[in-house]
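Morning. Coffee machine broken again, so started the prediction first thing and wrote up yesterday's gels while waiting. Chain of 771 residues, entered below exactly as on the submission form.
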Amino acid sequence: MDMSIDHPGPAHPSHTYSEPPPPPPPPMISSEGVVATDITQKFLSAAATLDPGQLVKDGFFTLFEAVGALEIMDSKMDSGCLAPGESLDDEYDFTRQLLPSEVIGIIDQLLCLEMAWHLGYPLSQTLLTSVYIEAMLMPSPNNIQEAHFIRDPNSKAAKDPMTTVLRAYCLGLLKACYYVNEHIKNEHYYEEEDFVTNTYHRSLLDNMDREEIREEIMSARRLVHSLRPDLAAGVADALCFRLELRTAFLRAIELSELRSNPESLSLPWVQMQAVWEPINKSRHLSTPVPEAFSTKIQRRLASTVPPRPIVQPSFEETYEHFKRLFRDGIDVLEVLNYADSQSLLQNFVLTFQARKPQPLVYIRTMLQSFLFKDMVILGHLSIRHVMDDDLSMVVLPGSQLLDPANDAVEAPHDGRFAVAHQMETFRQRAAQSYLDIFRALCQNRCRVRRTLCHSIQDWEAVQMEAEDIDQLLQIQLDEQPLAYPADAPPGSPPAYSLPLSSWAYLYKLRLMEWIVQLGFELQIYQADELAGMYWYLSHLAKTRARHVERIQAFTVKRNADLRGARSPRYTVAMEAEYARSMRYLRATLLDAVITWELAEALSCLYTALLRLGLVAPPPRPYSADELRYDIRMKPFAAVRLPDLPTFDEFTRQSEQTGVSTARLLEYAHAVSRSAQKGHVVVGQMSEQEAFSVGAHDRWAARAKQRMQSVIAVNVALSTMQSGLGKAGLGGSGADADGAGERARRVLKAEVPKPEACYHDWWIVPKISLLL
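Came back before lunch.
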């Protein structure tokens, strides 16, 4: 019987293969309205005419489809693209027994990833790259027992001591991240600029009770203590410190919701600060477990972005960031010790947010929460209380306009009824603008400036409306005018105090100064623009100083009138209010004068450098001076008062065309020396005199930095005058033909970056002698 089987392969090695059979014809599709056409040959012929890599865009092929087609099988864009031999998911064995050193290594890497998340990177590139975190969150656990890497609680691996310790740490970590994420979302922040709150459909244990998680951590600590005899030296303490960090973090978040008693609220932050040093010193006990982290998890996340690498700062960087986080967490609680409105705004919030590096977004949103949550300032103050405190300090000390008894008057014919109505109208109009200053200062530095540019337009409107209310109030109070200024020519119209519009105008001027000063800090202005912008800053500061002098004159007059009339209204409390107001006006006047003089000195110095070519403008083939001026002054274009200088006036004032270079340097020296004398007075101020209660150390540090800038200006001016003398350019010689070339042989000028200066707002050039 023939059992042979026909085989399609070659019968003999020498047999050659025949051509493969042609492909079967396409199926005949029979359907009404559908005509099938074979375009294979046409497509191949057309494709043969294209160069390798050449793309053809069809008009009916949308951009979305085109980008989608480009992403397919691109490892950088297509999360499903696998390399040869690569598996779709990680094959990590969660049942393996972890060594204590490996648990420390995983925890330390989680600390680095946690800080990367606080710095603004998404969870998909940080914590959600951990296979342990993913195993705990997916599928989403319904209770604390299900929140485990191994869902079978009876398995031997689930009861492994080191797995239990790691699980407890991850529970505390995820719960803390949930609270931080929710806290930030409830405040004002900028997505992708400051922080990414996207959780990619992961729960972060939002349905778990905080006390249950805290108990799991405490149970894990007890377990570690019981294993201490079996562990290597220092390992048990290293694990306990890391678990204690998680407990303290949860406690700090819990207490921050109270907004009272900052001494008690600071205890967990102090605890974290205390355990952080031992954690850093014990990191040598860790063993890295790189396979416990993978970017493949991003394939399972609800994300529209392509796969991205893991972002992990070094432990040294993480150490510094956490150290600063804990310090800022302690310091921000001091805001709850309210002293007065100016200490809160001008010094605490302003100096706290000006720290370098700036506090992390979580700390900044904590500050926002303390200030604004439920529209109750610092947990116990109404907006009216803070505004009236500010008005009393700045323009209305001891004034009946702020008397709470006015609100109880119900008779419409009583003047106090009209006063109460007009004041409440003003408060309602100005309250949001006032609070927006605090909110703006809580943002990142770039956003602070952008927000303030919008705020000054709002304050312009507040000032205009306040002028109308002032006129109504002066009729109700029968206010007597004052001849101001004292040297006004005969026949000049008398002046009224206009307290509400004066208050709004003072804030508007301060915001305008901050906008210009932040421009220096953020390097918005080029080196050849510094002369003009410092002149404009001096112009604004001079205007503020004169305005404060006006407010001061009316305050002194009211105080003298009450004293002279021996009015029964002039109580000890009212006298204290006037004394406080005079202290504030003196402090803010001194600040305005120092700013004016220092800015004037720098403007003159940069003008001299430009004249001699020691600072040269960069090539600008598509720019013009007037267009650049329009851009720089755009934030102030809508402001009616103070008047915006025209381009010609701005150029004339900044270039000082009619003043010799030698005279310019002498004048700069004179005003900088005057600023230095003013700083001597500033340095002797107490926290009450400087209105820096709760922030005096930071205020004093910034005052010292400005003082160092003044000294640096004096040194630069002396060096420049000495160099010009050596080059034979003294007197009018600095303005002669060829003076610039001779000066450049002797002098060298360098404009430093803001971070290299003593103060971010005062860019003092470094001038050196070449001979």
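Residues 583-618+647-771 form one domain. Going to sketch it on the whiteboard this afternoon.
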